[in-house]
Amino acid sequence: MIDESNPAGRLYKILCLAQQVRYKTIIEGWSNILETETNSIAVITALTELRSLSDEAQYLIKTQPELNHDLYLDWIDKINNVIMPQNLNLGASWDGTVRSSLKEGSLTSLKFCANKISEFHVEELLSDTEFETIVTKTNELFNVVSNSALPDSVKCILLTEIERLRHATAMYKIKGTAGMKKALQDTIGALIVNKTELKEISEDNDMSTLAKFQETMGFIATTIKFSEVVSKLISFF
User: Fold this and answer.
1) Residues 113 and 211 in one domain
2) How far apart are CA 183 and CA 155, in angstroms?
3) Which of 27, 87, 126, 134 is the 20 to 30 A CA-CA neighbour of 149?
4) pLDDT profile of the chain (237 residues), mean per 10
């Protein structure tokens, strides 16, 4: 069983599915496999995220100087040619391009790499219930902020950060909790940059909305076991 708690494992699982299924065109295939809208922008965005998994896997292998890097990364050029967005004609045949290019040898090599990475790198995995709760809470927060009495400038700041997290949850199949952690880190940075504007909000501006924002972000950080962000959120607010 492949370990999905690292980038090579997630890439392997997705590519195995891509090799097994049949679709008419590349855009149809990737939109279904990566669970995106069937348009070029959505598919290319998702493929860019998918392509980043090979970079992350390569980085992790190269952090271990004792490993034979050429051996564990033998798959990388062959796989990258299949998932590189700029290399793809999205209207081309799925079988004639993607499926025919995903050779068993490359996938086996990628699996070998994933298994090695799992020995020294593990990311949190969410249960279906935990993931669905995060999605629900994030969508609820978006609606609360949208309908709040906060100044438009503050709404824009908060909604931008919520949308960042919504993108991370949409990309969970590809990026895992690592994508959510990156989104939360970026949110902390955005809050610090906009600290003056946020601190000037008066009691008349619906402080309960900011409390809801803090509570939701704290819940997500706790669920994905990102304690550093929990403490930063508490200290900031």
Assistant:
1) no
2) 18
3) 134
4) 86 94 91 92 92 96 96 94 79 87 91 95 92 97 92 91 95 94 92 81 68 90 85 69
